[in-house]
């Protein structure tokens, strides 16, 4: 049993980020054509494009502001022209900001999280779901976080944005499921990335002691879950919030 995404086109937003790069490589290795979204890091996008092309996948880079509907529509048009309709949307991009307490957090930070977690996904659905409906197949995969179940101090803006995203995804799953489009979320724990390997910061005892598997997960383990949800192996899974956190958070029934 293999994950085969041959002839599928995947868009990964925030593909130049630490996790986005690994997801792009992984889906490409499964045979998908890749649209590499970036906002400002064109150099990284071009490097990733060259790497993925070496795998034999068709790929392009697309610049867009994921908080702007017009920008997302322009991105869709470019992808359609060069790769064809998008079959798989991986919503990974999020605006970064400095975390602090609710009393000290700037209102603009809550707005940025709403725009990048909620409105990004509304715009992506409006832009890409119609073609999926026409072809009776599609995948929306949102990158959420274990933080939405932790609700720790200083997480409020991030948690608020990602909880809003969760609501959009659950409703979207019910609205477009009849067209054989699945809508799911992957929720990473604190993940080891390329930066950690470079800086030798892979281990953190205070975090790991709370994780049943007693370690941090890797970026590849997150990408593996995304590839599974993108494939036919997950054809009857929709509306799911799936932590990939070593058991650090466990949704209850």
From TrEMBL:
One of its GO terms (molecular function) is oxidoreductase activity. Keywords: Oxidoreductase. Gene3D superfamilies: NAD(P)-binding Rossmann-like Domain. The keyword Oxidoreductase applies. InterPro entries: NAD(P)-bd_dom_sf, SDR_fam. One of its GO terms (biological process) is bile acid metabolic process. Belongs to the short-chain dehydrogenases/reductases (SDR) family. This is Beta-ketoacyl-ACP reductase. It comes from Cohnella abietis. The gene is fabG_2.
């Amino acid at each position: 049993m293999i994950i085969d995404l041959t002839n599928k086109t995947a868009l990964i937003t925030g593909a130049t980020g630490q996790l986005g790069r690994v997801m792009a490589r992984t889906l490409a290795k499964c045979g998908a054509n890749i649209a590499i979204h970036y906002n400002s890091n064109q150099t990284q996008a071009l490097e990733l494009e060259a790497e993925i092309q070496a795998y034999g996948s068709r790929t392009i880079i697309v610049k867009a502001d994921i908080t702007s509907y017009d920008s997302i529509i322009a991105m869709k048009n470019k992808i359609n022209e060069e790769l064809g309709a998008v079959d798989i949307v991986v919503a990974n991009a999020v605006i970064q900001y400095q975390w602090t307490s609710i009393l000290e957090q700037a209102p603009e930070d809550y707005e940025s999280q709403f725009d990048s977690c909620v409105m990004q996904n509304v715009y992506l659905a409006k832009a890409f779901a119609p073609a999926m409906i026409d072809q009776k197949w599609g995948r929306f995969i949102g990158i959420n976080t274990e933080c939405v179940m932790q609700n720790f101090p200083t997480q409020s803006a991030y948690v608020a944005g990602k909880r809003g995203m969760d609501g959009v995804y659950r409703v979207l799953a019910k609205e477009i499921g009849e067209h054989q489009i699945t809508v799911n979320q992957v929720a990473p724990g604190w993940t080891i990335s390329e930066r950690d390997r470079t800086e030798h910061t892979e281990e953190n005892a205070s975090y790991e002691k709370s994780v049943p598997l007693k370690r941090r997960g890797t970026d590849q383990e997150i990408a593996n879950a995304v590839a599974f949800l993108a494939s036919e192996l997950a054809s009857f899974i929709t509306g799911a919030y799936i932590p990939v956190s070593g058991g650090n958070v466990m949704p209850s029934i």
